[in-house]
Design brief:
Distance between the termini: 23 Å
Strand order of the largest sheet: 1-2
Order of helices and strands: HHHHHHEHHEHHHH
Structural class: mainly alpha
Shape: elongated
Number of strands: 2
Strand content: under 5%
Largest sheet: 2 strands, antiparallel
Length: about 300
């Protein structure tokens, strides 16, 4: 009996009341609620930001022309359509393909492509079109100029109507994809509201916890988990989408398009991981240091 009393008298850890435990649990629950809001809000805000602005959308798409796989896909579609529509002899098809490659790789093609992408963006997000069609106007003039440089014989076989020919590269019926894109673009405001609500809930989680540093640590862990989940979701989604395309040029082009529009979301997720980890570690070190200081102070007060 005396030994147990002595053990209690020299205990350095104060008892935790039921009310304190309840506050800790409520703080953790609020941190989880804020984490859910962040997990939904970040993709919505990012997606709406990327899709809502026509100029930004076309700038990202035009940057893809630096990728050989993208140029190869566009050149193949343009050459096939010109051969079919303008009745160019099959014997000249290789030379025409070479001319198309040169034309699409030239700086003069960029404004043509940019205008086509802007028109595509307006048709999907302003006119609610479910068909993705890229209309390349005046590209025939570039191709004809390239043909004249190395094959006058082929140039004679190409009708003058090619100069005014509008090449249409159609992706077919993407009804589901375009509806999802419009929904994400429209949910941009919802994402902002969710992030503001998450910030308020995180502050409430900190102040509700009796130990402020513990509350901040809960918030840091919540942000860290959000970042990890977003990084994993990004990697899995990219793999699933890109692998739907045939291996080779098409798959490389799909990966390039994904990266041009969604790499920023991965960067945001990695930032969340870093911020959450730093906050969690720092607050744990501060709490540990404060606890050690209190433990050292108690024997001094007893003496």
């Amino acid at each position: 009996m005396r030994g147990r009393r002595g053990l209690r008298a020299h205990s350095t850890k104060p008892p935790v009341s039921a009310a304190t435990n309840t506050r800790h649990r409520l703080s953790a629950a609020l941190a989880c609620l804020g984490a859910i809001a962040v997990l939904i809000g970040v993709p919505l805000v990012y997606g709406g930001h990327v899709l809502s602005d026509t100029n930004q959308f076309s700038a990202r798409a035009t940057s893809l022309l630096s990728k050989p796989s993208i140029r190869s896909v566009i050149a193949g579609r343009v050459a096939d359509q010109l051969v079919a529509d303008e009745h160019i002899p099959a014997a000249f098809a290789p030379l025409l393909s070479k001319a198309v490659d040169l034309a699409i790789g030239s700086p003069a093609f960029r404004p043509i492509f940019d205008a086509a992408v802007s028109d595509l963006h307006r048709s999907v997000f302003e006119q609610d079109s479910d068909t993705i069609t890229l209309r390349l106007a005046r590209v025939g003039k570039l191709i004809q100029d390239e043909v004249k440089r190395f094959s006058p014989e082929l140039a004679a076989q190409i009708p003058k109507s090619v100069t005014d020919h509008v090449v249409e590269i159609s992706g077919g019926d993407f009804g589901r994809a375009t509806r999802v894109a419009r929904a994400i673009e429209g949910a941009h405001t919802v994402g902002i509201v969710l992030l503001i609500a998450a910030a308020a809930v995180f502050l409430l989680a900190i102040f509700e916890n009796g130990d402020r540093w513990r509350g901040v640590r809960y918030v840091g862990i919540a942000i860290l988990v959000d970042g990890v989940l977003l990084v994993i979701s990004y990697a899995l989604s990219r793999s699933l989408v890109v692998n739907h395309f045939a291996p080779g040029t098409d798959r490389s082009a799909a990966g390039a398009v994904w990266d041009a529009f969604l790499t920023g979301l991965r960067s945001d997720a990695i930032l969340l991981v870093g911020v959450g980890a730093v906050v969690a570690v720092v607050t744990w070190l501060v709490s540990a240091g404060a606890g050690a200081a209190r433990a050292r102070a108690r024997p001094e007060r007893r003496r």
